[in-house]
Specification:
- The chain is an alpha+beta fold.
- It has two domains: 6-92, OB fold (Dihydrolipoamide Acetyltransferase, E2P); 110-410, BirA Bifunctional Protein, domain 2 (2-Layer Sandwich).
- The protein contains 13 helices and 16 strands.
- The chain is elongated.
Length: 423
């Protein structure tokens, strides 16, 4: 028996079809049971009468079934079509489903293993899949190699305060915060590389924008300087958004995403230096002293001033990582950039990399690190060093922004936070 995906039901109007899936909605009345059947491609209403009526009436939501029947157009039905069922086979009769209407978000996170079946979560996961595919397509079409780095590392890359320490056969090791240091070694062989991998940060923050385990799209490019890096970032984000608009319009509409705003996400993006960003914030009544990193509310205020994602550059060197190159025209700043989007804030952070060994050692010491622990990394600057740059993009934040979600916790199948390790 050949089963038709529910998402293709319109092609079979007036024909007999076989469908299989799960009962999403169930309503019994005298002589007829209306079942809204779902599979991964969509939903359709099924009307069950006659000899299959009693069997259908006894079923509960999330029971798995296979049906045969004739398709007809019905604008009143969910999805616009209805199947008049002649045969119903019960694959598994479900118990009473624990999720009902108007449950709290925390309860739904406790039940995430079942809540994944909901239409909103399925829509988010479909968008997420498109985003991952778009990242691959973008970089591979531009001649980049995919490169993997270790998950167990011996040193910090983004500051020691957010390291997850693990016992590595009696030695102290950490879960990686980023692939970057290893990527900088690999560019001397491959020149243009990218990865999509999990990163881990032990941030003691229970906010709607943080995960302890998040998915990182990272890129590193030999010979690339700061201006080219910013251009690459805006091209990547625009490519992803346009791909989702093309592939997932139905899901975006279901989620209530701002499709009009997403349609404007095309290069070039506005750029502003950190010093000028502080001036703009001050004019809006938000005084931020120089040398302080921008918080979520300040990033949000800046985004309100533009109709596209915003690139902020030349951050103070004391709040940025040791590997960022000092700006030639500002001794207090680095050639670093963050890309900010509305309602979420930073989705990309990157920089041109420091090539001078003396500067690297000085910055490591200033951040409380021992330069000798980074000997292998410093070796990359001893033998044929070249200008290079790269960035990391938080995929979960990108999904949150595109889908118009109110929390990063809804942008991933099973979020890991300071307070949550299950399910």
């Amino acid at each position: 028996m050949k089963f038709v995906p529910i998402g293709e039901i319109a092609k079979h109007t007036g024909k007999k079809v076989s469908l299989r899936g799960w009962i999403y909605r169930h309503r019994a009345s005298k002589g007829v049971v209306f079942i809204v059947l779902r599979d991964s491609s969509g939903i359709v209403q099924c009307a069950v009468k006659g000899k299959e009526y009693e069997k259908a009436k006894s079923l509960l939501v999330e029971s798995s079934v296979a049906v045969e029947g004739t398709v007809k157009e019905d604008k009143r039905a969910p999805g616009g079509y209805e199947v008049a069922v002649k045969k119903l086979d019960v694959v598994h009769k479900a118990e009473r489903f624990p999720i009902t209407k108007d449950q709290s978000k925390e309860f739904l996170r406790d039940m995430r293993h079942l809540w994944l079946r909901s239409q909103p979560m399925a829509a988010v996961l479909k968008v997420r899949s498109t985003v991952f595919g778009a990242v691959d397509e973008f970089f591979r079409s531009r001649g980049y190699y995919e490169f993997q780095s270790p998950m167990f590392v011996g040193t910090a890359a983004e500051g020691g305060s957010t390291l997850f320490e693990v016992d590595y056969f009696g030695k102290k090791a950490y879960l990686t915060q980023t692939w970057q240091l290893y990527a900088e070694a690999a560019i001397f062989a491959l020149e243009k590389i990218y990865t999509i991998a999990p990163s881990f940060r032990a941030e003691r923050s229970s906010t709607s924008r943080h995960l302890t385990e998040f998915w990182h799209a990272e890129v590193e490019t030999a010979w690339q300087q700061f201006d080219e890096l910013q251009k690459q970032g805006e091209e990547l984000v625009s490519f992803i958004v346009q791909k989702v608009l093309k592939e997932n319009k139905k899901e975006l509409e279901l989620l209530g995403a701002d499709i009009g705003a997403l349609g404007r996400v095309k290069p070039p993006f506005p750029r502003i230096r950190y010093r000028d960003a502080l001036k703009k914030l001050a004019s809006a009544g938000m005084d931020v002293p120089y040398g302080k990193d921008l918080r979520t509310k300040e990033e949000a205020k800046l985004c309100e001033m533009y109709d596209k994602p915003l690139i902020v550059t030349h951050y103070p060197k004391e709040i940025k990582a040791f590997y960022m190159k000092q700006a030639p025209d500002d001794k207090d700043a680095v050639l670093g950039m963050d890309m900010l989007v509305p309602h979420v804030g930073e989705i990309i952070g990157g920089s041109e990399r420091e090539e001078d060994i003396g500067e690297i050692k000085k910055k490591l010491a200033a951040q409380g690190e021992k330069p000798e622990d980074y000997g292998w990394y410093i070796d990359t600057r001893r033998y044929g060093s070249v200008p290079h740059s790269g960035f990391g993009m938080g995929i979960d934040r990108v999904v949150e922004w595109i889908c118009g979600l109110d929390s990063i916790h809804e942008a991933i199948g099973f979020p890991r936070t300071m307070d949550r390790i299950t399910p």
